[in-house]
């Protein structure tokens, strides 16, 4: 191997190669950029050869071919746009690290339309006068939530901050100690409260809070009663919380708004399919909350957004507040949200069109059928197995729900499970997998039919490249 190190072609020779031109064109690189990459690749191959690394297979007749193969892989990695398509083989439907909800076909279309043309974002077509972006979406939100009024902001964390800041700055907000949650590390009720300038008044204990706890805490300084949906954990045993329905008369008697942070905010009732016990937004509003807030990209299945819905009196105050401008969403978000909400007019349509709902409701048998179809075209060099497992809803929602699924277990002819997992992650599109029984596992709940050919290709690359690793 060491003698090969001396035979490596000079950089200026390689630059004349047709492949050099081709790679430059394919990845939109300048000659300088690609030369820098080429130097890096040649140096690294030389080092490996000198170290006697026999992992590297360099046929004396095909040194150029191998160098350009490595150069292309390097260029692809470096030149790729950083935010990219990832195949989610984890089975976690709302994977926060992988961007949560995927949009429906109609929502995608509307985003492209809004992005590529002028829109009536703040323009009333009937009068020819200036309009409000908030009005565009409000009717649709009223329809699906049953609320009097609604406003959309950047995300649910912003929504909570907005409500607290606009309605309770410098005043007290009463929250049960059992609901002082932290979600995903970056959202803590107590920290958002502090940022907003509202003063947190904790009542009750971790496991039990009674109506009289709230009652005794109300003073002239109180601005708001707040409930927080404990999205990502479940308390069991000797526990008690006061439901919104029971808090409502107390709030009314003291002329205080009751605000509930619902977290996920479901518009489709998953309970009817035996999945979870999440109240719908409509139910939460019917229970008496004056204001609720929830995410657009959790179980609603739309774009990242925070929706505040409730009594017109309070929403109007929010609309007039300076923060409405600070936290406002752009036209692409509104386009995606409007199209997603439209699916909910017809429950059947919501089930078939919204990818998040479809993925949560996918039965174990349907996942199995997806795997079976996928396996037909799989290279026989793979050793495979199919086993039962569970998928998660994710995104901090329905932590107690385990969705029965099947996973495809893959064993590479040479690589360990960790090596294969790393290799799958580092190609394009990246494939994110789990390890089950020390094998790479792909949960087809979150792998769409239209991703299967790309996945086949990635697996084929792994078989072809096995000697190179
Ligand atoms: C997820 C969640 C949030 C944060 O929502 P984002 O849309 O991620 O900002 C806030 N509160 C609760 C209860 C949540 O579950």
From TrEMBL:
Keyword Mitochondrion: no
Gene Ontology annotations for the cellular component aspect, listed alphabetically: cytoplasm
Residues found modified as N6-(pyridoxal phosphate)lysine: 298
EC class of the enzyme, as a word: transferase
Family annotation (InterPro entries): PyrdxlP-dep_Trfase, PyrdxlP-dep_Trfase_major, SelA-like, SelA_trans
GO molecular-function terms, A-Z: L-seryl-tRNA(Sec) selenium transferase activity
Keywords: Cytoplasm, Protein biosynthesis, Pyridoxal phosphate, Selenium, Transferase
Keyword Cell wall biogenesis/degradation: no
Superkingdom field: Bacteria
Annotated pathway: Aminoacyl-tRNA biosynthesis; selenocysteinyl-tRNA(Sec) biosynthesis; selenocysteinyl-tRNA(Sec) from L-seryl-tRNA(Sec) (bacterial route): step 1/1
EC number, as in UniProt: 2.9.1.1
Function of the molecule: Converts seryl-tRNA(Sec) to selenocysteinyl-tRNA(Sec) required for selenoprotein biosynthesis.
Matches recorded under NCBIfam families: selA (TIGR00474)
Name this protein carries in UniProt: L-seryl-tRNA(Sec) selenium transferase
Organism: Halalkalibacter oceani
Gene behind this protein: selA
């Amino acid at each position: 191997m060491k003698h090969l190190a001396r035979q490596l072609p000079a950089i200026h020779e390689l630059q004349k190669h047709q492949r050099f031109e081709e790679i430059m064109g394919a990845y939109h690189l300048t000659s300088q950029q690609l030369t820098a990459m080429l130097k890096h690749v040649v140096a690294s191959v030389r080092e490996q050869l000198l170290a006697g690394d026999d992992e590297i297979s360099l046929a004396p007749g095909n040194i150029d071919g191998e160098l350009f193969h490595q150069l292309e892989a390097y260029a692809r990695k470096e030149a790729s746009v950083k935010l990219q398509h990832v195949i989610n083989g984890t089975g976690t439907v709302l994977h926060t690290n992988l961007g949560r909800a995927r949009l429906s076909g109609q929502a995608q279309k509307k985003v492209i339309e809004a992005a590529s043309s002028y829109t009536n974002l703040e323009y009333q077509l009937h009068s020819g006068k200036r309009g409000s972006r908030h009005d565009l979406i409000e009717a649709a939100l009223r329809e699906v939530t049953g609320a009097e009024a609604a406003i959309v902001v950047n995300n649910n964390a912003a929504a909570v901050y907005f409500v607290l800041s606009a309605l309770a700055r410098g005043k007290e907000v009463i929250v049960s100690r059992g609901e002082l949650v932290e979600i995903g590390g970056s959202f803590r009720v107590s920290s958002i409260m502090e940022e907003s300038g509202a003063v947190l008044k904790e009542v009750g204990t971790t496991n039990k809070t009674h109506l009289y706890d709230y009652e005794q805490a109300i003073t002239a300084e109180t601005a708001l009663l707040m409930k927080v949906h404990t999205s990502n954990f479940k308390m069991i045993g000797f526990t008690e919380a006061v439901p919104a329905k029971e808090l409502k008369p107390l709030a009314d008697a003291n002329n205080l708004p009751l605000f509930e942070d619902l977290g996920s905010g479901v518009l489709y009732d998953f309970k009817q399919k035996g999945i979870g016990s999440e109240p719908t937004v409509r139910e939460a509003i019917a229970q008496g909350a004056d204001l609720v807030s929830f995410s657009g990209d959790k179980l609603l299945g739309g774009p990242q957004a925070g929706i505040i819905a409730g009594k017109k009196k309070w929403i109007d105050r929010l609309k007039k507040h300076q923060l409405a401008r600070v936290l406002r969403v752009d036209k692409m978000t509104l386009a995606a949200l409007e199209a997603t909400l439209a699916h909910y007019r017809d429950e059947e349509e919501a089930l078939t069109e919204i990818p998040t709902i479809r993925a949560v409701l996918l039965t174990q048998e349907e996942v199995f059928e997806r795997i079976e179809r996928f396996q037909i075209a799989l290279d026989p060099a793979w050793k495979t197995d199919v086993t039962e497992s569970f998928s998660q809803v994710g995104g901090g929602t329905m932590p107690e729900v385990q969705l029965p699924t099947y996973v495809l277990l893959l064993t590479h002819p040479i690589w360990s499970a960790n090596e294969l997992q790393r290799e799958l992650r580092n190609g394009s599109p990246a494939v994110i997998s789990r390890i089950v029984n020390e094998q790479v596992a792909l949960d087809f709940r979150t792998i769409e039919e239209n991703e299967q050919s790309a996945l086949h290709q990635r697996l084929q690359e792994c078989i072809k490249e096995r000697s190179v690793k």
